[in-house]
Amino acid sequence: MLQRPVLxxxxxxxxxxxxxxxxxxxxxxxxxxxxxxxxLSVEVPGAAxxxxxxxxxxxALIGERAPFYQITRDASRAVNGGLWVVMQVVAxxxxxxxxxxxxxxxxxxxWNETLSPITYVFMxxxxxxxxYHYALQGKPRAAGDDAYVTLLAGETDLDAEAGLRRGTVGLxxxxxxxxxxxxxxxxxxxxxRWDVGTDPRFVEAAFEDFTTRRGDGPVxxxxxxxxxxxxxxxxxxxxxxxxxxxxxxxxxxxLMTRWDATGAGRGDAVITGGDAGDAVIYANECWDESFGRTxxxxxxxxxxxxxxxxxxxFDEPLWSEISAD
Length: 325
Fold this sequence. Notes:
The protein is mainly beta. The chain has helices at residues 26-32, 67-94, 173-179, and strands spanning 100-101, 105-111, 118-128, 131-140, 149-159, 164-172, 187-195, 201-211, 219-227, 233-241, 251-259, 265-272, 281-287, 293-298, 306-307. The protein has one domain. Strands 1-2-3-4-5-6-7-8-9-10-11-12-13-14-15 form a 15-stranded antiparallel sheet. The chain is elongated and about 65 Å long. Mean pLDDT is 84; it is low at 1-22 and 47-58.
């Protein structure tokens, strides 16, 4: 007998949205309570594949690819990749008819693909007006029901009249990796908070000791993303890297990037530790709609000042208060 799954996340404040339209079945109601990978995605204006790793400023020249832009682009891919893996498993499951549906909950499964080594069960429970809890559990295919463990759990709060849709979701990649290290090669944990009914759309994701399928990491970081309806937005995050300065020590970089509807943007970074010593370095970079650098300045002469501040789509710096710790 399956036990009711225990949420693996800390509950955050919620309120939410359900689309208008024709009457939905109970099954559709429960299915709609689950966030999609697209709703949790971070959409930085697109460009070609990264030509550099996630280090910081590496001395680009005016007109060349702006490093702060590329760092932002690369970080957005990392966030999307981490959230996408398990959310796609959920999406595949709920495309099928529910196994059980009543006034309080819906259950999908036990379910697995023909060649999958893991059996999954997904459950959505209504806990109040427009409020839902959901969880994904898995077990080795040949194991008994007492072997189920929680891989994902979340809460959603929906309000059709207000047009809001918000929630939180926690993903336990350590638990998934322990079930089958080949099927789920990632490890670590991610907690995400999302609000897709507002303008701007908001996604916050905290990564704890996260490693990718390629073995990159572990990474612990906090990411905050906002996207307006016209495509403009902002992304703030902290990371550790060796900045292009004398010495090989790594520094902590806290970066706030913003862009307008054309993709032109500005990045404002605070750099501490490592070769910066006791100093606090403030760096500013701007780029055009082709993502080429138009301006660079920092208060330590780390890289020579280039371009003209008048080329920046945002006149004043905006500093993030998040931390890489």
